[in-house]
Design brief:
Layout: E1 3-9, H1 13-24, E2 30-36, E3 49-52, H2 55-60, E4 65-68, H3 72-84, E5 89-91, H4 102-113, E6 117-118, H5 127-134, E7 138-147, E8 170-176, H6 177-183, H7 189-197, E9 205-210, E10 217-225, E11 228-236, E12 238-239, E13 242-246, H8 247-261
Parallel strand pairs: 1-2, 1-4, 2-3, 4-5, 5-6, 7-9
Antiparallel strand pairs: 7-10, 8-9, 10-11, 12-13
């Protein structure tokens, strides 16, 4: 039986769901998982899961791939070390790359370690088409994040309006993906993903909307370029374990991990 050593940065709702899904079907692999956390929790009842509290211990487990599913801060703290050590990294907290200089820092670490940084599509679709269209030239990319008011609680939106009293859709922000990611860091991942796949953080326009008439997290992407035009809309169900995370985000991470050992990759 072939083995596969998976490392993780973070073990919150996303991490737990990802591990549960991978363990349901390991594709015949002997899968071992080492998760880097701040404080090692009590046993999760999984014989193939080990917790560590420092990145050096994570790297000593010799992971073939590390998945970050913790936070922008965790990616900034541990991502460069993983890449410098020559280990490929999957980053869920893509919004961190909107911070000035951080994308270049990660790229430098990846070059030094001859590793690769993977940016999964996460909660949005069409990223493969957008990155392909970019090769021939894009003229415009826009992204709209539309969520129910309670999804914006605990964010900058609470300083802009009374989320509990909204009757109609309310525009919370309109501007560049970089500025939107700065103002709404907990909701920045999709905006940053669309921007990095297309025109970049400073040339991608985004709108952030609180809409009491929707009950799902909705993402709208439009693009124009030499390829033609693209328009898509997703209405994602939330994760059963975390209402602020789209279920599709977990599935995207799972697909990225499985692609690592699959013989046919889509």
């Amino acid at each position: 039986m072939k083995s596969f050593s998976l490392g993780m940065i973070g073990f919150g709702a996303i991490g737990r769901s990802l591990v549960d899904r991978l363990n349901k079907d390991t594709d015949g692999l002997d899968l071992t998982i080492t998760a880097l956390v701040r404080h090692a929790p009590e046993s999760q009842g999984l014989s193939n899961l080990t917790f560590v509290t420092d990145v050096e211990a994570l790297l000593r487990s010799k992971p073939e791939l590390v998945v970050e599913c913790a936070s922008q801060e965790a990616l900034a703290q541990h991502g460069p070390a993983v890449l410098t050590a020559g280990v490929d990294l999957v980053a869920a907290s893509i919004g961190a790359l909107s911070q000035p200089g951080f994308e270049q820092r990660l790229e430098s670490a990846a070059r030094k370690g001859a590793a690769r940084l993977f940016l999964p599509a996460g909660a949005v679709a069409g990223i493969d088409g957008l990155t392909a269209a970019k090769l021939a030239g894009l003229t415009q990319v826009t992204y709209v994040s539309r969520k129910p008011p309670n999804a914006w609680k605990g964010t900058h939106a609470e300083t802009l309006c009374d989320l509990d009293s909204l009757k109609d859709e309310t525009l919370l922000f309109e501007g560049t993906a970089r500025e939107g990611s700065r103002l709404f860091p907990k909701n920045a991942n999709v905006a940053a993903t669309v921007a990095l796949a297309g025109l970049g953080l400073d040339d991608t326009r985004i709108k952030v909307i609180a809409d009491p008439k929707v009950d799902r997290n909705c993402h709208e992407v439009e693009a124009e370029g030499a390829f033609g035009t693209l328009a898509l809309r997703l209405a994602n169900f939330p994760s059963p374990d975390n209402p602020k995370t789209s279920f599709l985000t977990i599935l995207s991470l799972e697909r990225t991990v499985r692609n690592r050992w699959s013989r046919i990759v889509i």
